[in-house]
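Whether sequence alone determines local backbone shape is best considered at the level of individual chains. In the encoding step, the backbone of a single protein was reduced to a row of integers, each denoting a local shape. For completeness, the protein is quoted in full, as a sequence line and a line of structure tokens.
***
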Amino acid sequence: MEVILIRHTSVDVPPGTCYGQSDVPVRDTFEQEAEAVSRNLAAFQPFDCVYASPLTRARRLAAYCGYPQPRLDNRLKEMYMGEWEMRSFDDLKDGYARQWFDDYMNLPTPGGESFQMLYSRVADFLDELKSADCQRVAVFAHGGVLISAGIYGGLFKPDEAWDNQPGYGGIMKIEL
């Protein structure tokens, strides 16, 4: 099974903001970015199944690309930043923030998730997807989800994760 993962377009929040699972707006360049994604996605179509994160930024891109009714799955949401949602990374100066930056793979954000927790729920989704009656699947989601899927699909190792994060509107393919 081919799984084509599509990252949402750019968001309208200040750079360096921990927006995670907050339902933030897309930038006013959405139409131009989404058109480029739609053109790039044409090379992978048709899809047997289409899934999306329930967050607006992913659903809106799916709809623009011709999939107004994707199957929504909470496991496809971005990493939950807990108490850090909508705060600037630059404002996180306490001792725990320094520990988290050194070990984000294992330490959760205060009241939120660790990268390992995000990976586990994405892996659970992909494990379940293997039994779906689909040959080619589109998944509209978020950077952390795409990184997790890339690790799961063997595209790169966990210590290479952030070097392989697709940009806004980026597309990644894995085989299950």
